[in-house]
Design brief:
globular, 370 residues, 15 strands, single chain, 6-stranded mixed beta sheet, 12 helices, alpha/beta
Length: 370
């Protein structure tokens, strides 16, 4: 299959529209029209990872962190990012990154962690705002069912485990076509009253353009009335971090031991903690320390994330116990997540997990007595 087909499939599962405004998830570079010869999965793009892809015969690399986070003004050999771009272009590699688009998804690392830990009553810690819209249109009664079908087929009206959700109310539409108009009903220059149905559906940002296109195609009017209204609805499955209840009360050490069964945990930093057992916990992979207040206010007795600032460990004591175990370590699971999603489309025969993905943070171990 073409690489573009693989990317399209991934984006149906993890829409790019889920990313944060500061991010650059999605296609980084490369010709996606070429046939896919193999995919290498990694956390970051490095020169070693690019060479690994070439050695394996892969022409696509899917990562968690984007290579191009900031704009480039030149491509030289001065920085590793510029060298990576030049190398990838020279070898006709395609690079795709699912960063905060994956983080904010129910398929991402936060919900993965919750499932592996057996959390109950799981919800997003910080639901994503400005992501949902109410699309409202007005149509002749006889065309209403066809429009509802077109909206549902385009992905409108998805609410949890329910699809095709909409609300309708009948009324009267009034309009006067100009002499240059070609009205579906009524006559140019004459005021007209048409029995109509008002149809309202919920649409997420990722499907909005597709839904509007489908609506205009299905609507019989020359100039259909369409309202797109941003709403404050927040899904419990879309956003940053997770919060839930442990299957049983556990100490921090017991939690870390459980985590170690499915991801590397070499060292844990934490704020003041007296060893008590906790029942309600929150988690956010990567740099999620900004959520500790929200975690505490929602009843989390422990908040675990990848990294935090020095003063966060002081300030968090007023809200919850804060624990960190490394940015890289908390996101290493994204390789497996991306692999599981992509294998649904292409199987596992052409998927490779990078052996050169490495933590950019290194530690100097001091010998005892020296």
């Amino acid at each position: 299959m073409k690489i573009s087909e693989l990317i399209s499939f991934l984006e149906t599962q993890v829409p790019v529209s889920l990313q944060e405004s500061y991010d650059n998830s999605g296609l980084q570079l490369g010709n996606t029209d070429q046939e896919c010869r193999g995919v290498l999965l990694a956390i970051d793009i490095t020169e070693a990872v690019l060479q690994e892809a070439v050695d394996l015969g892969c022409n696509a690399i899917f990562t968690h962190h984007p290579l191009l986070f900031h704009s480039l003004r030149r491509i030289t050999s001065e920085t590793y990012i510029e060298r990576c771009v030049a190398f990838a272009l020279k070898h006709d590699l395609v690079i795709y990154s699912a960063h905060t688009s994956l983080d904010n998804s129910s398929l991402g690392p936060n919900f993965y962690w919750a499932r592996m830990m057996g959390l109950r009553n799981v919800q997003v810690l910080e639901p994503k705002s400005d992501y949902y819209f109410k699309v409202v249109t007005y149509a002749p009664l006889q065309d209403a069912d066809a429009i509802r079908t077109a909206l549902a087929d385009a992905g409108a009206g998805m609410q949890g485990e329910y699809s095709g959700c909409s609300f309708s109310v009948d009324g009267e539409g009034r309009f006067t076509p100009s002499s240059d108009a070609h009205p579906h009903c009524g006559a140019p220059g004459e005021a007209h009253v048409e029995p109509e149905t008002c149809i309202a559906v919920l649409v997420d940002r990722g499907r909005l353009s597709t839904v509007l296109s489908a609506l205009r195609s299905a609507h019989p009017y020359e100039e259909p009335a369409i309202d797109v209204l941003p709403i404050s609805y927040q899904s419990p499955e879309v956003g940053g971090g997770v919060i839930g209840d442990l299957p049983r009360p556990m100490t921090l050490k017991e939690i870390v031991d459980s985590m170690s069964a499915f991801q590397p945990v070499e060292r844990v930093c934490h704020s003041r903690y007296d060893g008590h057992k906790v029942s309600r916990v929150a988690f956010c992979s990567g740099s999620g320390a900004s959520l500790y207040k929200r975690a505490g206010r929602r009843g989390a007795e422990l908040f675990i994330t990848g990294e935090a600032k020095y003063n966060d460990f002081y300030d968090a004591t007023d809200y919850t116990v804060l624990a960190t175990y490394g940015h890289y370590e908390s996101e290493l699971m994204t390789q497996n997540i991306l692999g599981d999603i992509l294998s649904e489309k292409m199987g596992t025969f052409a998927l490779h997990y990078s052996v050169n993905s490495a933590n950019p943070v290194n530690y100097l171990e001091r010998s005892n007595g020296k």
